[in-house]
Design goal:
Layout (H helix, E strand, L loop, with lengths): L10 E6 L5 H4 L8 E9 L2 E10 L1 E2 L5 E2 L4 H8 L8 H11 L4 E7 L8
Antiparallel strand pairs: 1-6, 2-3, 2-6, 4-5
């Protein structure tokens, strides 16, 4: 399932559990954009639960990066209300009794790096 990610120039992943701090474990780039996939790990099963993105494709096809890159968007972006992910993901893991989430990030090959 994860072999597809190996073809991207920049890809990596990290695990996040309720006892961790998201800004400490997030290894996403601070100066680039891309997509990120969030997989839930629960009862020995893995399920894709969220797909997000950082940055915008401009009319000329170039990527406009957010300040802080995909790292800042993952850590401080809002999800599940107006709560930053560094708090809302922890709450969601506890609510749903998840063991962890596994986050993968990359820029698709047809998108241009700046």
């Amino acid at each position: 399932m994860f072999d597809e990610l190996t073809k991207y120039k920049n890809n990596d992943h990290f695990f996040f559990t309720p006892d961790m701090e998201l800004n400490d474990v997030c290894n996403a780039p601070k100066k680039s954009s891309g997509i990120y996939l969030v997989y839930e790990l629960k009862n020995g099963r893995i399920e894709l639960v969220y797909i997000g993105s950082s940055g915008k494709v401009q009319d000329n096809g170039q990527i406009k990066h957010r300040n802080g890159g995909i790292f800042d968007w993952i850590v401080n972006g809002h999800q599940f209300g107006k709560i930053p992910r560094k708090k809302s993901w922890k709450q969601k893991l506890i609510e749903e009794s998840n063991e962890a989430i596994d986050i993968y990030g990359q820029l698709p090959k047809w998108n241009k790096e700046i």
